[in-house]
């Protein structure tokens, strides 16, 4: 656990000073591509399935307005459970330019990934890998795009279609919310999984 925290802090710190050229971008090998596409797909699938299951349960039991608590309170703990379950995962993050939670704002590398998927959204690739070297370690950033589904539009749809009570609750929890205006099928952002490349 302590090593993961140190690696994550090292990666976070280096990302914050990315403009100082501390990170070297490398091309992943074909073996790395095969390994991390498979592993990233499994982990991101678990995360989306866990989040969807929690949302569906909350909506069924408490209604849409109370399901906001899943995203607000449970999304990060569910994500951290997956980080803890795999020794090579350094971090998992949901990233978007139109974020609700400022923790989901992109850094420079993540912004490149978002632009990559936005430009190809009519026929989106399944994922994107970035291999980065930092000090004596290499990391693989695995990105999987997120698409707006029907359930998502209750909270992320067009402003005029969001119920007044729900809109008020969102405003209370996220005063600088940027995450509305979507339609089914729109590009929402990415799941980013950072692996220590072993």
Count the helices. How many? 6
- Helix/sheet category: alpha+beta
Q: Estimate the helix proportion, in percent.
A: 40-55%
Please give the alpha-carbon distance between the first and last residues. 17 Å
Give the radius of gyration: 17 Å
Could you tell me the strand content as a percent range? Answer: 15-25%
Shape estimate: globular
Which stretches are low in confidence, meaning pLDDT under 50 for 5 or more residues running?
5-20
Query: Secondary-structure element sequence?
Result: HEHHEHEEHHE
E-strand count = 5
Q: What is the averaged pLDDT score?
A: 88
Main sheet, how many strands, which sense, barrel?
Answer: 5 strands, antiparallel
Keywords:
alpha+beta, five-stranded antiparallel beta sheet, 6 helices, 198 residues, single chain
Task: Report what the structure shows.
This protein has about 200 residues and is an alpha+beta fold. It has helices spanning about 1-15, 30-60, 65-85, 110-120, 155, 165-175; strands at about 25, 90-95, 130-135, 135-145, 185-195. It has six helices and five strands. A five-stranded antiparallel beta sheet has the order 1-3-4-5-2, with helices on both faces.
Question: Which SSEs are present, and which pair or pack?
Answer:
Blueprint: H1 2-16, E1 24-26, H2 30-62, H3 64-84, E2 89-95, H4 108-119, E3 128-134, E4 137-147, H5 153-156, H6 164-173, E5 187-196
Antiparallel strand pairs: 1-3, 2-5, 3-4, 4-5
Helix pairs in contact: 2-3, 3-6
């Amino acid at each position: 656990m302590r090593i993961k925290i140190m690696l994550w802090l090292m990666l976070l710190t280096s990302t914050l000073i990315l403009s100082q050229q501390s990170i070297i971008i490398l091309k992943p090998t074909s073996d790395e591509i095969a390994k991390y596409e498979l592993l990233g797909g499994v982990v991101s699938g678990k995360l989306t399935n866990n989040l969807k299951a929690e949302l569906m349960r909350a909506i069924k039991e408490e209604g849409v307005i109370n399901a906001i608590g899943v995203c607000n309170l449970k999304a990060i703990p569910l994500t951290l459970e997956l980080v803890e379950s795999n020794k090579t995962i350094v971090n998992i993050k949901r990233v978007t330019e139109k974020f609700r939670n400022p923790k989901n704002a992109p850094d420079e590398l993540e912004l490149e990934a978002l632009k990559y998927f936005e430009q190809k959204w009519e026929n989106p690739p399944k994922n994107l890998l970035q291999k980065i070297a930092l000090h004596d370690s290499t990391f693989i950033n695995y990105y999987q795009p997120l698409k707006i589904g029907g359930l998502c539009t209750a909270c992320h749809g067009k402003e005029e279609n969001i119920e007044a009570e729900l809109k008020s609750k969102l405003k209370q929890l996220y005063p600088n919310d940027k995450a509305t205006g979507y339609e089914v099928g729109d590009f929402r952002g990415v799941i980013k999984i950072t692996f220590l490349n072993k």
